[in-house]
Amino acid sequence: MPPPTYSLLALTGIKDAISLASSINQLPIKEKLNDAYTALNGLIHQQGEIEIELHNSKRRIRELEETAKLAAQMELVFTVYWKRIDESRLEGPYSPIDYSEGKLVPLKCTMIREGEAHYQDSRNKMYTVPLEYLKRSKAMNDEEVAHFTDEKPPEVYRPRSNWATGGML
């Protein structure tokens, strides 16, 4: 498609030709030029709509590529999602409800009791993950485990992720 400036120049040229046809009293030529002007104007409008649609399609493709890349890193274990950082390390857990809605929202660890870590999502739904799995996957280090087993209140503890905002600290 020609750049918009050429299209606008063509419209201006047709308008000038219409004026000329009017001045020399050539009604059939003027009518044909009016038809050409209307048709070109419609094509320019369609071109604008197509360009907008193309831009939106490219943006959607980028979003889908990012989603596919993230999905390739995600694993569902113990009813929660984990993001694979490397061969031996996971990040998470993340809310399965939010993940199904296209959002990656970390769960909040509320306590560790009897060898299990208890997590809560923003809807107050609870999830349980074996402590051994957290240590093996390096999702929680010994210092973080000690925090909860020493019975310190969760408000004092600053986790590696901020579950309320869904972002990393």
What does this entry look like structurally?
Helix content is 51%, strand content 22%. With 169 residues, it is an alpha+beta fold. It folds into 2 domains: 68 residues; 91 residues, no CATH class. The two termini are 48 Å apart. It is built from 5 helices and 8 strands. Strand 7 and strand 8 form a beta hairpin. The radius of gyration is 31 Å and the shape is rod-shaped. The strands form 3 sheets. The protein has a 3-stranded antiparallel sheet. Helix 1 runs antiparallel to helix 2.
Topology, number of strands: 8
Total count of domains: 2
Q: How much is the average pLDDT?
A: 80
- What level of helicity do the residues show? 40-55%
- The number of distinct helices, counting runs of at least 4 residues, comes to 5
Give the gist of this structure.
The chain has 169 residues and is an alpha+beta fold.
